[in-house]
Amino acid sequence: MAEFTLTGLRVLHQVATVGSFTRAAELLGYTQSAVSRQVAAMEAAAGAPLFDRGGRGVALTPAGQVLVRRATEILADLAATELELAGLRDRLAGRLVIGAYPTAAMALVPRAMAQVTSGHPGLAVVLEEASTPALLRRLRAGRLDVAIIGVGHGLPDYDLSELRQTMVLQGGLRVAVPEAHRFAGHSRVTVADLAQEHWITGDGAAGEPQFRAWPTLSDPRIAHTARSWSTRLGLVAAGLGITVIPEQALPALPAGVRAVAVADGHWTGRATVAVTRPHPSAQAQAMVSAMQDQAAHLHDD
């Protein structure tokens, strides 16, 4: 007596998805005759035709619709089971809490989280966004496993004693301009070029990087001030001014905004650092490594 098989259900699902035996065979790496045999076996098990064959492809019969619906559920459950079992075998299972300041949380941290969780399906990673002083307090209290902070020009000298620090990114700054702006087609401008521009500046929390106008520009013209990056970049996209943006946030630039480098030998820069307790867990070390990997590929997009 014919029986349903996982291989047959996979073939059935693929044929139903693409509407063609030939295309399903190509995607599955089977011969067309092998696909036909699997479908025939599923029809024998179902006791009814599953497809109406036509000159322009195949269509599901009522019996086929029922079986494909059930096959979709079975295959999804199987994939979830495989993922759960992989988590049991993975020594990096459990829960990891990473905290980051808002700019790092725009693109760099989410990409590192995706890298870690795809490689370690048994590890649940939770992101908390907060100011650097708050992140360091939570780290020392054991509420965070990794804190991503900014250090350098214009930032407080944070107390990092007895904490482990790992350089993630020596970050530069750029200016974000509307796509119709006169700078949009330039690869680089000078500080003098910025003198007559209208600026949209940030109003971050105490202890956070304060993204004002270009750091070495004297007497900038401030047009608007907004706390969130989405608001600032929205104002830029609308043509209401330009703003400073860290290179690590470039992957999150919205449509209608371009980033331009600035030639400035007086800007000493800032850095993004991963901070952990003195003896980080294997999970925390994996996250720090992922942060470094993503920082190294930041400009690949």
UniProtKB/TrEMBL annotation:
InterPro entries: HTH-type_LysR_regulators, LysR_HTH_N, LysR_subst-bd, WH-like_DNA-bd_sf, WH_DNA-bd_sf. SUPFAM superfamilies: Periplasmic binding protein-like II (SSF53850), Winged helix' DNA-binding domain (SSF46785). Residues 4-61 form the HTH lysR-type domain. Pfam families: HTH_1, LysR_substrate. GO terms for cellular component: cytosol. It comes from the Bacteria. One of its GO terms (molecular function) is DNA binding. Keywords: DNA-binding, Transcription, Transcription regulation. Belongs to the LysR transcriptional regulatory family. This is LysR family transcriptional regulator. It comes from Spongiactinospora gelatinilytica.
